[in-house]
Amino acid sequence: MTPEEWAAVSLSVQVSVWATLLSLPFGIAAAWALSRKRFPGWQALNALTHLPLVLPPVVTGYLLLLAFGRNGPIGGFLEDTFGIVLAFRWTGAVLAAAVMAFPLMVRAIRLGFEAVDRRVEETASTLGAPPVMVFLTVTLPLISPSLIAGSVLAFAKAMGEFGATITFVANIPGQTQTMPTAIYALLQVPGGDAAAFRLVWISIVIAVGALVASEVLARRMQARVQGS
Amino acid sequence: MILSVALSHRFDGFDLNVAFDVPGGVTALFGPSGAGKSTVVRAIAGLMRCDSARISLGSRVLDGPGHRVAPHLRRIGCVFQNAALFPHMTVRQNLCYGQRFHNGSTVSFDDVVAMLDLGPLLHRRPEGLSGGERSRTAIGRALLMDPDLLLLDEPLSALDEARKAEILPYLERLRDGTRRPMIYVSHALPEVARLANHIVVLRAGRVLRVGATEDVLSDPNLSAALGLREAGAVIAARVLRVEADGMTLLETAAGPIFLPGVTAAPGQTLRLRIPAQDVILSRDRPVGLSALNILAAQVVSLTPLDAASVMVELRLVDQTILARITHRSTAALALQPGTDCFAILKSVAIMGAT
């Protein structure tokens, strides 16, 4: 494998891990609000979380570029205030992957919230636990299997993300080139097939590995949660 | 400690409007499903907001105008029908959950474990427990938070008869051992008759009657609400002696009663239930009858129940009991208030110690 291919593999893993970890707290918050609360704007939040699922990824990438580009309202603010630049950087790939994976993560975690027996939480509060403690000591442990499921889905989605990534951060080898964009680039040049195949195999191995690991982890969590 | 409750709430075509004050001891909230029992319990625990609510426990106001204590600050221990144990914790962790939020608990972990026989379960998880073991764990967990009031919402209704019989002695121990006010929600009269000092009878969102268990259960006007099959007086009895043939002689305000198979020692007091449908009336003292308990009685009142039966309120010395007989028998015996007769008690159930 060439250093360029390795860079694509490691960048993909790096981007996906960050995208998953960074979207997890927001995913939990959104899933909680959508499954437990009814408020003005509920429909809007629901639609917004699902938007990346239904929009063409290129459109999502372009919208990200408009908002988070160096001249965009949010991108400009981030650069001026914190010195953070997203467009055409690997950090931007993280944002693109996180946004694209967000609906899948939220859906999985929502199912977890909806499966929790509310009486168990109510009992915890009658036993003296303030709402935050009920959430930390009862709700969160009980939804842990769906947190894992949601994270694996998000990780897999992030690993495969192409359209929004290439639109928002382009395909710069060693900087923003992820496995999917590298495979695409290799397929555009004569004789690139062998290298593309190596990356295809690696992405299959990583995907299957993540799936198996999540299955093992989810079972262990399920056993801890339900004591089976 | 007096629990004072006044609630009104309207939802989905159901109109709840209840107010009652009950003293300490065990108060049963009794009524059929849909009477509003669960709503009252959830309101007392602070788990639900009513349109208007005034709830106070002793001098503490839990709900009042512009004032509402959050559920986690109420110090009310709840045991729900399905036990609602934390599935991700062991029995020990379940039991100790409430203690981390309450400093200076006066309840000893070891005492509670001993009282409810939880020792062998401590390291197990809820999943593997039987229904009865779950209930006991939930009761212990509520007790260990050192509550000012225990709310037991149909803790036995998910259990079969054998499991109920297994749990009831623990509930009696709880009542007699902890001296903590308890609200016991149930639609099963035998449980209520056995455990409660006071009864609040609920029906379709209204309080039908509040009173001492003995008074409520021997009120012929409540028989229909309590369930005709279940109706019957509850009386106190003291064990006098065990006779040579194994029969035990009990002293009651209604007169002497003989019962077989009583395990209580002389001097102990018991609570007896005399089902109204197991009382036979006779104008003359019956002779040549196998029944042992035949007591002189006087008719106090006659309350028609349905097309077939009449509830007869009887005075036996200083005790009121009920007999459920047919209209035809009432006519044949020419029963009227004041009529002297004899009550033949076909069955008397021991409801446990008082």
Structurally, how many domains make up the residues of chain A?
1
> How many domains make up the coordinates of chain B?
2
* CATH top level class name of the largest domain in chain B: Alpha Beta
Spell out the CATH superfamily of chain A: MetI-like
Shape of chain A: globular
Helix content of chain B: 10-25%
- Which CATH-level-2 architecture of chain A? Orthogonal Bundle
Strand content of chain B: 35-45%
| Amino- and carboxy-terminal Cα gap of chain B | 20 Å
Low-confidence stretches of chain A: none
Overall geometry of chain B comes to: globular
From the helix content, strand content and strand pairing of chain A, which structural class follows?
mainly alpha
N-to-C order of helices and strands of chain A? HHHHHHHHHHH
Topology, pairings included?
The complex is a heterodimer of chains A (228) and B (354).
Chain A: H1 3-36, H2 42-54, H3 57-68, H4 73-82, H5 90-115, H6 118-126, H7 131-142, H8 144-160, H9 163-169, H10 179-188, H11 193-226
Chain B: E1 3-11, E2 14-22, E3 26-30, H1 37-45, E4 52-57, E5 60-64, E6 67-68, E7 76-79, H2 91-96, H3 109-115, H4 131-144, E8 149-153, H5 161-178, E9 182-186, H6 189-195, E10 198-203, E11 206-212, H7 213-217, H8 223-226, E12 232-242, E13 248-252, E14 255-259, E15 269-275, E16 279-282, E17 294-304, E18 309-316, E19 319-326, H9 327-332, E20 340-345, E21 349-353
Parallel strand pairs in B: 3-9, 3-10, 7-8, 8-9
Antiparallel strand pairs in B: 1-2, 1-4, 4-5, 5-6, 10-11, 12-13, 12-15, 13-14, 15-21, 16-20, 17-18, 17-20, 18-19
Helix pairs in contact in B: 4-5
